[in-house]
Design goal:
alpha+beta; 3 strands; disordered C terminus; 14% strand; 126 residues
Length: 126
């Protein structure tokens, strides 16, 4: 029997250490994303979000507001929404690039099922 307590070379301690490392890396990446500022803009409106997509600021250029009537203000609202969507899409791409590799960080290996005495059926076995 191996040191981890399972036959076939499966080391539970090593897997737990690897999981703890992935968790620490994930937390570090999430902190970095929360501290990152991304800007999106549309028609004179600039929106700032952090790397997790939280809205942290809105800037409106004077030319973005054509008038004070309801239609002009509705247009301004549309520009704010468009700028936010632009910034949020960039934040989502950054998060995927930053966190994506961490999702596949655990290498359970093919020995897991064999070590536990089970079988692993592949598509050719069905």
């Amino acid at each position: 029997m191996s040191e981890g307590g399972f036959p076939g070379g499966f080391d539970l301690n090593a897997m737990l250490e690897q999981a703890q490392q992935v968790q620490a890396d994930l937390m570090r990446a999430q902190q970095e994303l929360a501290q990152t500022t991304i800007e999106g803009s549309a028609g004179g409106v600039t929106v700032r979000v952090n790397g997790t997509g939280d809205l942290i600021g809105v800037g409106i250029a004077p030319e973005a507001v054509a008038g004070q009537d309801a239609e002009s203000l509705a247009d301004l609202g549309d520009l704010i929404v468009a700028a936010y969507r632009n910034a949020k899409a960039q934040a989502d791409q950054l998060a995927a690039a930053t966190l994506g590799p961490l999702g596949g960080g655990l290498d359970l290996g093919d020995d897991l099922f064999g070590s536990l005495g089970g079988s692993q059926a592949g598509p050719e076995d069905v």
